[in-house]
Design goal:
Chain lengths: 114, 113
């Protein structure tokens, strides 16, 4: 049972570089989410998707982009990395709408922008 | 908007002590409530949940009751172990579609032998 898989686990970027954080789930979940976790803070929603081809902004979308071409994959793109984007990024997925089903999380990507 | 407030941390206890971590939520809509646990270097794992008022979620000796009258979902455990050391997050769903969660800021629990 792989669940939600995130790659890479760690990455250091220089200011202005771009990269894509990968997320894949094998549970056939329609709903997928990207969060960032800053020290001493809870998780903030960046983007979410309710199915292939459908994405929408969360609380903190600026500086990020997403796509959802398949049910399994939900990559997060940073186009021009900034120090404020240093954080731990978590991808999650869930099965059902209505907010009553739990989300399943990946192990995170720890990203530093220097 | 939706919000979740957790008690300030960190919390430090001795093994076998009683644990309470307070959580309150805004009462908009009909949310489900969740407790997630995060062990060092890992992602969040669902610990327990409750989907309506007066429901009690329980798992691994942890319990929390959905209290609509006090808008609370406090986490309790009668006897903590060193292995319970982790960060605990309270969360509420949006009460609408898309399953979006609002998280509290997290409470760091350290249990000493």
């Amino acid at each position: 049972n792989a669940g939600v898989t995130q790659t890479p686990k760690f990455r250091i970027l220089k200011i202005g570089q771009s990269m894509t954080l990968q997320c894949a789930q094998d549970m056939n979940h329609n709903y997928m989410y990207w969060y960032r976790q800053d020290p001493g803070m809870g998780l903030k929603l960046i983007y979410y998707s309710v199915g292939a081809g459908i994405t929408d902004k969360g609380e903190v979308p600026n500086g990020y982009n997403v796509s959802r071409s398949t049910t399994e994959d939900f990559p997060l793109r940073l186009e021009l990395a900034a120090p404020s984007q240093t954080s731990v990024y978590f991808c999650a997925s869930s099965y059902q709408e209505g907010g009553h089903q739990p989300q399943h999380f990946g192990d995170g990507t720890r990203l530093s922008i220097l | 908007g939706n919000s979740v407030t957790q008690m300030e941390g960190p919390v430090t206890l001795s093994e076998e002590a009683f644990l309470t971590i307070n959580c309150t939520y805004t009462a908009t809509g009909y949310p489900s409530l969740f407790w997630y646990v995060q062990y060092p270097g890992e992602g969040l794992q669902l610990l327990l949940k409750a989907t309506k008022a007066d429901d009690k979620g329980s798992n691994k000796g942890f319990e929390a009751t959905y209290r609509k009258e006090t808008t609370s979902f406090h986490l309790e455990k009668g006897s903590v172990q060193v292995s319970d050391s982790a960060v605990y997050f309270c969360a509420r769903s949006g009460g609408t579609s898309y399953g979006k969660l609002t998280f509290g800021q997290g409470t760091i629990l350290t249990v000493h032998p």
